[in-house]
Amino acid sequence: MDKSLSKAERTRRFIIETTAPIFNTKGYEGTSMSDITEATGLTKGSIYGNFENKEAVALAAFDHNYAIIKKTITDKIAQSQTYHDKLMVYATVYHSFTRRSGFVKGGCPILNTAVEADDTNPLLCAKAASAIQSWRNAIMNLIKAGVASGEFKQGLDHEQIALSIIALIEGGVMISKVTNTPANLDIVLKTVAALIGQLKK
């Protein structure tokens, strides 16, 4: 924990880091205040002293989980040399998330939140939608840069490709989870790899 933070900031961060895997595993509706107090060892009054309500904790927990994934992807993209390899980071990261401990417990927070909150919690749904928009834009920018560098073909539909990659990955994650068969995700990610491969000149 960062010693430069105030006691209140450290407590708030502790609550977020402790409850983030719970919300991502059990969902907003499935996570009770008793789950939060039991996990943190704090009283309900302490929780509400740092957050307005359970929803505020859930929103902060989503941001925390999403930031972990985003940093992992950003770091790996920065280490990749070609635009093909940069795009392939998305496939490799999501391939590993079901097999790596310490990534984000409970799976992809974007998918989990979108599925649960689409009709029930506008604020959480907006968080998931914003994350998907950011993801789409990041992929589109990589494709555009790949075209500009001469690595990818001209005339590509950047948005169509970006949304297709996202849909395939999240669909593969969902199928692998509900069937409890990680190999199903592997099959879908081969399609993602093939799609990215087709962008090359």
UniProtKB/TrEMBL annotation:
The keyword DNA-binding applies. InterPro entries: Homeodomain-like_sf, HTH_TetR, Tet_transcr_reg_TetR-rel_C_sf, TetR_C. Residues 32-51 bind DNA. Residues 9-69 form the HTH tetR-type domain. The keyword DNA-binding applies. Keywords: DNA-binding, Transcription, Transcription regulation. This is TetR/AcrR family transcriptional regulator. It comes from Mucilaginibacter boryungensis.
